[in-house]
C-alpha cells in the first residue's frame, strides 16, 4: 500500500485556514524564517480520509475480534465512553483554567480517586502518571523521598524484583537511580521465599511485584513476603498490570503494598489506541502521601480544587493533573459496573481457567495450578518434536482470525504463549479459539509447513524484522536523499561496543 | 451495564470443564488473610442512558464558553472532523502496540508516516513513535544526552515552559543529573550566558518560541551549546514550523515538544502526545517505539517495530527508557491534521496566528495596556501588563466572558501584573475587540 507521501500532489490541500481580511503577519527575522517547506502530504480531504480508512482495514483491534494478548488486558472498550469524552464541557476545557471553571472535571477526578482508593485499599492517589511504567518510576521516586525524609536514602539502594517481572520494572529501577536485586521463582510459580530471605536487608529500599504474576498465578506466600519487607523497614510496590484479576476480591493495600499503579487502559478500559494512550495513577499508603506529585485533587465541602501545597512533594512527572480524557473513559467504565467490578474480575478469571482447562493437554503447562486472569503455556514439545515454535503458533492463529497471545514472555518459560481472554468474550468465541489452538497443534504434527509459513491470510506475509534493525529505514526518503537513509547504519557500526 | 456475555448455563458448563464447583473456588490460591470479604464501596452501577446524563451533568459544571486566550503550552486550535472520524475507526482505536506486524500494518504504516512528518518539520533524521507529553520528552532527552556525552549537567533556559522545567528537575536525581537554569533578559535568552553555562553540560534545552511567545535567537543558542560540545535541544511548537526554521537546520541535536497543537483537543490537559526527534547519531539511544521499513516473505514492503534492543522488554535494566504504552492514537491525530494542512496550510496557520496575535497586541496597546517585552518578535502568544494583579484582571475579564490569558506570576515572581495572551486561528477580530475591552 502506498504511503500518504506517495499519494501527494503539489497544490492539493485538505483544510482551509481562516485569514481575517486586511491582516498581514509580521515579518519573521530572516535568520529565523523557514527556508525550505516541510514535505507534508498534499491531498484533498476525501483522499486523506480514504487513506486512513484503508490503513484501518490493515489493522486488527478488539472491535475486530478476539485479542488475547497476555498482560495487556485487551477488553471491550464501550462506545458510550467515546461519546462522553467528546462532550464540549470536557474536550474544550483548558487545563490551566482557574479551579472554579473546572469544577466538573475536578469532581470527576476526585470520584475517580475515591474509587481507586477503594479498589486498591490504600489512602491517597495521584492521577498524574501517564502510563503504568511512569507510575512505576513515580513510585520509586516516592521511595527515595520517603527514605530521604527518614535519613535512610543513602543506605537503601536496592530494589528486589522477581525474574518473572515485566521489563518495565528493572528499567524503572535504573531510571530512578536504584540497583536491581533479582529473586528467583519457585517450583509452584511463587517467589522463592528462601532465596528472598537472603536478599533483603538494611540496604533494601523495597520490592516491585506483580500479583498475580506474569505467569497468571497469585503468590501464595504474599503474607510471608510482606513480613520480610516490612520487617526490614522496606517498602512494597505493586505493579497493577494484572489488577483485572482481583478487583473486589483482594486489594493490594491489604496484601501489604505501599504504592500501587493502576493501568487505566487495562483494567478500566481506556482504548489502547494502537499503542496508547494509557493512564497510570498511583495509590499510596498515608505515610507516602506527603511526597506525591503536585497538584493533587482536594475537596472542600462541595467544591474541588487542585492543591499545589505539598512542601515534601517530589515535583511533577507530567504536565497538569494527568491525562484527563483517560479519566473520563475509565470513570465512565467504573460507573457502568459499580460494585459488579468484582464480577468483572470473576468472569475474567473464569474465562482464563476455561481456556487453560481445554488447552493444557495439547500444549505444555509449566505450572499446573488454577490460574487467575491469564496463564502461560509453552510450545516446547511442539518445537522439539515438530520444529513448530511459539512464534509459528502465533502467526498461524492469525489465519484463524485471532490476534496472537503474547509470546516469549515471561522469560523463564521457554516458547511461552501468554494468554489473557479478559471478561469481555462470549463462550462461543472462547470455544472457537480453543478449536483453533487444538487445530494448530494437530497441524504441527501433520503439516508443519503450513504453520511455519503462516500467516497466509493477512495483507502481508511474515516480515523480516532482522533486516529492519540492521538497515534502519525509519522515515520516508522522498527518493532523493539515499545518503541520509544509510546514516543510521553507519552509526550502528560506530556505536558497537559503546 | 451489559458488557458481560456469559449466561448461567455458560458458567456451569465452564466450571464443569475446569473441574471446580464454584467461581469462588477459582480463587483458592489467595490466602484468606488477604481476601476482601465486603462488597466494594463504590457508587452504584448506571445504565448507559443514566451514564450519559451523569457525564453531561459533570461536563456542564465546567466553564468552556468564555472566549479562550489561554495558552501557556496548550492551545485552542481547530481539530478537523476527519481527525475524529479516523480516531473512531475501531481497528485503530482498539488495537494495542503492534508487536505482531502482520496484524498491525495499519498502525505501523501510520507511525512510519508520523515519524516522517516529524522529521520533515524538525529537520531531524529520526523520530520516535511518541512520548507522553511535551514535558516528559524533555526528561527523555536528558537521559539520551547524559549517555551520549557522559556528562551530568543539564542547562535549561528560564524562558522554557515552567512545567517542562519542573518535570526535568523531578527526573534529574534518578538520572544522576544536575539542572542549571539560565535566566532571560527582557523575554529572550542571551547566547553568551548559555555559552558560559554550557561548559561541561550534556545538553542545553531551550524553548523557541519561548514560554513568553518570544522568538529566541535560536541559531545562536544552538551554536553556543555546540561550541561547548553540549547537545542543543530545541523545544518547539509544530504549528510554528511552517514559518520558523527547522531546528535540524540550525544545528540542534534533538527537537522535542508538545504535539497537542496538531490534532488534539485541549481536554483539560490530556491525553496528548510529546514528539521527540534526533539526528541519526542518536538513533540507538532514543527512548520508545520506532517503526522501520522492511519486506515480507514475498518481498513486499511492510513495517515493523524496530531497534527493539533499546527497549525495556528486551534490555530490561539496561534499556534506554521504561516507556511501553505511549500516545500513538494522539500522534495519529497529529498526522491526520498535518496531512490535511499540507505545507501550505501549515504555513498559513502559523501566519494567521502571528497576524492575529500582532493585531491583538496593537489593540491592547491602543486600549492603554503595555506589552511586557515590547522589543521582541512573538509568534502566537505575548505577555501584557495589566496594571494590577493579573489574576484580578483575569477575573474581571472573565466576568465579561473573556478568558484573557495566563497570569505569569504563577511561575515568575515579579511578573504578578503580567498576563500571557494566546491567539490562535480560532479567534476572530470581534473576539479580540472584546479582549481589549475586557482588559482596559
Task: Give the tags.
heterodimer, A: 498 residues, alpha/beta, Aspartate Aminotransferase, domain 2, Aspartate Aminotransferase, domain 1, 7-stranded mixed sheet, 3-stranded antiparallel sheet, globular, disordered C terminus, B: 440 residues, 4-stranded antiparallel sheet, 13 helices, 15 strands, 37% helix
Structure description:
The complex is a heterodimer of chains A (498) and B (440). Chain A is of the alpha/beta class and 498 residues long. Helices cover 37% and strands 10% of the residues of chain A. Chain A is built from 17 helices and twelve strands. In chain A, the strands form three sheets. Chain A has a seven-stranded mixed beta sheet with strand order 1-7-6-5-4-2-3, sandwiched between helices. A three-stranded antiparallel beta sheet of chain A has the order 10-12-11, with helices on one face. The longest helix of chain A has 20 residues, at 427-446. Chain B has 440 residues and is an alpha/beta fold. Chain B folds into three domains: 8-60, no CATH class; 67-78 and 342-439, Alpha-Beta Complex (Aspartate Aminotransferase, domain 1), CATH 3.90.1150.10; 81-335, Aspartate Aminotransferase, domain 2 (3-Layer(aba) Sandwich), CATH 3.40.640.10. Helix content of chain B is 37%, strand content 14%. In chain B, helix 7 (162-175) links the parallel strand 3 and strand 4 (178-182). In chain B, helix 3 (81-87) packs antiparallel against helix 11, helix 5 packs parallel to helix 11 (328-366) and helix 6 packs across helix 7 (162-175). The relative contact order of chain B is 0.14. The chains are: A alpha/beta (498), B alpha/beta (440).
Task: Furnish the topology, listing elements before pairings.
The complex is a heterodimer of chains A (498) and B (440).
Chain A: H1 45-57, H2 79-85, H3 88-91, H4 103-120, E1 124-126, H5 132-149, E2 158-162, H6 168-175, E3 179-183, H7 193-197, E4 204-209, H8 222-231, E5 235-240, H9 252-255, E6 259-262, E7 282-284, E8 296-300, E9 303-307, H10 324-337, H11 341-359, E10 375-378, H12 380-386, H13 390-399, E11 406-407, E12 416-419, H14 427-446, H15 448-452, H16 465-470, H17 482-495
Parallel strand pairs in A: 2-3, 2-4, 4-5, 5-6
Antiparallel strand pairs in A: 1-7, 6-7, 8-9, 10-12, 11-12
Helix pairs in contact in A: 2-10, 4-10, 5-6, 11-14
Chain B: H1 8-18, H2 48-60, E1 67-68, H3 81-87, H4 90-93, H5 105-122, E2 126-127, H6 136-149, E3 153-157, H7 162-175, E4 178-182, H8 191-197, E5 203-207, H9 218-227, E6 231-235, E7 254-258, E8 274-278, E9 291-295, E10 301-305, H10 312-315, H11 328-366, E11 370-371, E12 381-385, H12 390-399, E13 402-403, E14 406-407, E15 418-422, H13 429-439
Amino acid at each position: 500500500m502506498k504511503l500518504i507521501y506517495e499519494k501527494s500532489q503539489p497544490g492539493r490541500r485538505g483544510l482551509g485556514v481562516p485569514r481575517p481580511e486586511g491582516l498581514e503577519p509580521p515579518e519573521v527575522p530572516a535568520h529565523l524564517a523557514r527556508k525550505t517547506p516541510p514535505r507534508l502530504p498534499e491531498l484533498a480531504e476525501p483522499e486523506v480520509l480514504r487513506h486512513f480508512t484503508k490503513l484501518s482495514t490493515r489493522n486488527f483491534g478488539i472491535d475486530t475480534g478476539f485479542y488475547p494478548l497476555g498482560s495487556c488486558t485487551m477488553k471491550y472498550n464501550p462506545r458510550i465512553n467515546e461519546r462522553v469524552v467528546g462532550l464540549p464541557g470536557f474536550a474544550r476545557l483548558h487545563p490551566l483554567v482557574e479551579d472554579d471553571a473546572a469544577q466538573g472535571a475536578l469532581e470527576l477526578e476526585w470520584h475517580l480517586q475515591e474509587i481507586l482508593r477503594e479498589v486498591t485499599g490504600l489512602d491517597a492517589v495521584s492521577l498524574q502518571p501517564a502510563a503504568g511504567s511512569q507510575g512505576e518510576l513515580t513510585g520509586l521516586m516516592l521511595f527515595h523521598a520517603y527514605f530521604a525524609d527518614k535519613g535512610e536514602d543513602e543506605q537503601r539502594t536496592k530494589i528486589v524484583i522477581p525474574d518473572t517481572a515485566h521489563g518495565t520494572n528493572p528499567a524503572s529501577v535504573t531510571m530512578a537511580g536504584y540497583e536491581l536485586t533479582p529473586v528467583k521463582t519457585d517450583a509452584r510459580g511463587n517467589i522463592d521465599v528462601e532465596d528472598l530471605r537472603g536478599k533483603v536487608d538494611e540496604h533494601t529500599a523495597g520490592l516491585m511485584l506483580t500479583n498475580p504474576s506474569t505467569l497468571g498465578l497469585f503468590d501464595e506466600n504474599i503474607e510471608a513476603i510482606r513480613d520480610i519487607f516490612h520487617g526490614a523497614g522496606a517498602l512494597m510496590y505493586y505493579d497493577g498490570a494484572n489488577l483485572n484479576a482481583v478487583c473486589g476480591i483482594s486489594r493490594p493495600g491489604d496484601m501489604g503494598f505501599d504504592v500501587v499503579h493502576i493501568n487505566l487502559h487495562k483494567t478500566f478500559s481506556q482504548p489502547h489506541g494502537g499503542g496508547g494512550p494509557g493512564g497510570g495513577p498511583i495509590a499510596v499508603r498515608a505515610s507516602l502521601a506527603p511526597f506525591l506529585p503536585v497538584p493533587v485533587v482536594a475537596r472542600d465541602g462541595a467544591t474541588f480544587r487542585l492543591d499545589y501545597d505539598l512542601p515534601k512533594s517530589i515535583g511533577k512527572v507530567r504536565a497538569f493533573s494527568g491525562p484527563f480524557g483517560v479519566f473520563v473513559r475509565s470513570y465512565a467504565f467504573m460507573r457502568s459496573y459499580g460494585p459488579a467490578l468484582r464480577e468483572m474480575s470473576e468472569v475474567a478469571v473464569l474465562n482464563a481457567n476455561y481456556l487453560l482447562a481445554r488447552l493444557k493437554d495439547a500444549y505444555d503447562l509449566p505450572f499446573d495450578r488454577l490460574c487467575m486472569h491469564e496463564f502461560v503455556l509453552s510450545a516446547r514439545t511442539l518445537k522439539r518434536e515438530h520444529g513448530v515454535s511459539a512464534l509459528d503458533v502465533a502467526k498461524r492463529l492469525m489465519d484463524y482470525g485471532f490476534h496472537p497471545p503474547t509470546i516469549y514472555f515471561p522469560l523463564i518459560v521457554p516458547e511461552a504463549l501468554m494468554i489473557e481472554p479478559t471478561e469481555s468474550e462470549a463462550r462461543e468465541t472462547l470455544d472457537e479459539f480453543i478449536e483453533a489452538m487444538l487445530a494448530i497443534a494437530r497441524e504441527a504434527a501433520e503439516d508443519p509447513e503450513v504453520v511455519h509459513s503462516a500467516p497466509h491470510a493477512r495483507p502481508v506475509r511474515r516480515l523480516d524484522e532482522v533486516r529492519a534493525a540492521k538497515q534502519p529505514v525509519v522515515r520516508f526518503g522522498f527518493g532523493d536523499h539515499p545518503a541520509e537513509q544509510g546514516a543510521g547504519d553507519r552509526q550502528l557500526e560506530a556505536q558497537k561496543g559503546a | 451495564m451489559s458488557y458481560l456475555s456469559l449466561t448461567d448455563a455458560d458458567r456451569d458448563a465452564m466450571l464443569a470443564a475446569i473441574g471446580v464447583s464454584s467461581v469462588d473456588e477459582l480463587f483458592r490460591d489467595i490466602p484468606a488473610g488477604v481476601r476482601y470479604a465486603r462488597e466494594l464501596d463504590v457508587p452504584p452501577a448506571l445504565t448507559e442512558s443514566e451514564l450519559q446524563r451523569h457525564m453531561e451533568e459533570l461536563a456542564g459544571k465546567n466553564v468552556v464558553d468564555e472566549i479562550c486566550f489561554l495558552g501557556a503550552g496548550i492551545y485552542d486550535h481547530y481539530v478537523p472532523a476527519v481527525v475524529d472520524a479516523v480516531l473512531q475507526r475501531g481497528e485503530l482505536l482498539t488495537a494495542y502496540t503492534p508487536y505482531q506486524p502482520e496484524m498491525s500494518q495499519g498502525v505501523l504504516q501510520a507511525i512510519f508516516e508520523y515519524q516522517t512528518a516529524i522529521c520533515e518539520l524538525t529537520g531531524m533524521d529520526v523520530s520516535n513513535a511518541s512520548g507522553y507529553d511535551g514535558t516528559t520528552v524533555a526528561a527523555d532527552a536528558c537521559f539520551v544526552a547524559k549517555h551520549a556525552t557522559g556528562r551530568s549537567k543539564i542547562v535549561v533556559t528560564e524562558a522554557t515552559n515552567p512545567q517542562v522545567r519542573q518535570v526535568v528537575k523531578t527526573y534529574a536525581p534518578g538520572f544522576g543529573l544536575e539542572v542549571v537554569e539560565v535566566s532571560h533578559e527582557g523575554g529572550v535568552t542571551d547566547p553568551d550566558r548559555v555559552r558560559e553555562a554550557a561548559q561541561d553540560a550534556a545538553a542545553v534545552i531551550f524553548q523557541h518560541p519561548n514560554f513568553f511567545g518570544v522568538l529566541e535567537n535560536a541559531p545562536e543558542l544552538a551554536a553556543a551549546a555546540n561550541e561547548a560540545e553540549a547537545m542543543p535541544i530545541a523545544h518547539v511548537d509544530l504549528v510554528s514550523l511552517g514559518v520558523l526554521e527547522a531546528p535540524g537546520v540550525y544545528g540542534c541535536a534533538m527537537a522535542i515538544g508538545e504535539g497537542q497543537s496538531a490534532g488534539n483537543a485541549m481536554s483539560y490537559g490530556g491525553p496528548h502526545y510529546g514528539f521527540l526527534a534526533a539526528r541519526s547519531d542518536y538513533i540507538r539511544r532514543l527512548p520508545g517505539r520506532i517503526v522501520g521499513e522492511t519486506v515480507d516473505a514475498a518481498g513486499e514492503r511492510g513495517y515493523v517495530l524496530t531497534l527493539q534492543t533499546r527497549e525495556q522488554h528486551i534490555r530490561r535494566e539496561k534499556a534506554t527508557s521504561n516507556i511501553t504504552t505511549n500516545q500513538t492514537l494522539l500522534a495519529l491525530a497529529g498526522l491526520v491534521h498535518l496531512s490535511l494542512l499540507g505545507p501550505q496550510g501549515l504555513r498559513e496557520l502559523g501566519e494567521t496566528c502571528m497576524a492575529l496575535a500582532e493585531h491583538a497586541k496593537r489593540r491592547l496597546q491602543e486600549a492603554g495596556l503595555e506589552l511586557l517585552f515590547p522589543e521582541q518578535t512573538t509568534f502566537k502568544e505575548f505577555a501584557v501588563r495589566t496594571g494590577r494583579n493579573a489574576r484580578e484582571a483575569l477575573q474581571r475579564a472573565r466576568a465579561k466572558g473573556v478568558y484573557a490569558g495566563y497570569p505569569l506570576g504563577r511561575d515568575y515572581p515579579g511578573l504578578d501584573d503580567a498576563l500571557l495572551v494566546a491567539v490562535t486561528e480560532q479567534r476572530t477580530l470581534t473576539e479580540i475587540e472584546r479582549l481589549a475591552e475586557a482588559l482596559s
